[in-house]
Amino acid sequence: MIELKGLTKAYCSSGQEVKAVQNAAFTLHDGEFASIVGHSGSGKSTLLSIIGGLTRPDAGAVLIDGENIWDRSDRELAALRNEKLAFVYQFSSLLPTLTAGENVLLPTAFGGKGTPADALILLELVGLGGKAERYPAELSGGEQQRVAIARAFINSPKIILADEPTGDLDEETETAVMDFFETANRERKVTIIMVTHNTDLAKRASRKFRMKHGMIEELK
Predict the structure, then answer these.
(1) Measuring CA to CA, which residue among 37, 73, 21 is closest to residue 207?
(2) Integer distance in angstroms from the first to the last C-alpha of the chain?
(3) How many other CB atoms sit within 10 Å of the CB of residue 123?
(4) At what angle do helices 141-152 and 171-187 cross, to 10 degrees?
(5) In angstroms, what is the C-alpha Rg of the chain?
(6) pLDDT of the residue at 151
(7) Phi, psi dihedrals of residue 19, rounded to the nearest 5°
(8) The pTM is what?
């Protein structure tokens, strides 16, 4: 279970304080799929970064399985991210000197249970069967993003944090990615929090939230 309690984060911009996240709170149970919509600058990405243990909040707590992750040391946070969490961003950020299969396996270099056989299965699931030996330069942008999504699942995370995962994709690839997320959520019981500006994509989640001026509310 993920529980947010009074999360607040402010930055200084041009000499003025900007509250990126204001008193954010909600609870997600294991296996839920949540979307967060909002305009650029509404605080969506900052909130996701706090939940993922990348940006320390000024106040509040992020409880995962009852434990506040921000009570952990930096080393413990890194272990948590590798063991329980995985991130998908708008851009794939693949290593150009590694093949697709090697890129998928990269998180296992820092500990994990994924195997080369698992990497091949994941590439097949995202529609890239037979392309494990291709390098990023030999793949389209959409294919690179699907490699990045396969990489996120290699260590069997409990939670996927996706920040505009389809923002740079064509409509067909976008649909394929969302289908994969829904299947993983349903069959693997992976909890997914997806940030998007696309309200149509957001509707595919079982829980829907909106952020505005750093404040979050659930949509019914």
Answers:
(1) 37
(2) 21
(3) 24
(4) 10
(5) 17
(6) 94
(7) -85, 100
(8) 0.92
116-125 helix and 141-152 helix, angle to the nearest 10 degrees: 130
C-alpha span between 130 and 43 (Å, rounded): 39
d(CA 2, CA 67): 9
Calpha distance 217→211 (Å, rounded): 7
> What are φ and ψ of residue 142, in 5° steps?
-65, -40
User: With 0-12 CB in 10 A as exposed, 13-18 as middle and 19+ as buried, what is 111?
Assistant: exposed
Give CA separation, 53 vs 78, 164, 199, in Å.
8, 18, 26
Q: Could you identify the residue written with the tokens 């590694």?
A: 98
Q: Which amino acid is at 9?
A: K
The pair of structure tokens assigned to 80 is: 């948590």
Q: Which of 165, 169, 149 is nearest to 157 (CA)?
A: 149
Backbone φ and ψ for 69, nearest 5 degrees, come out as: -65, -25
Give the model confidence (pLDDT) of 49-95 as tens digits.
999 999 999 999 999 999 999 999 999 998 888 889 999 998 889 99
Task: Pick left, alpha or beta for residue 41 (phi over 0 → left; psi -120 to 50 → alpha; otherwise beta).
Answer: left
- Residue 109 CB neighbours (<10 A): 9
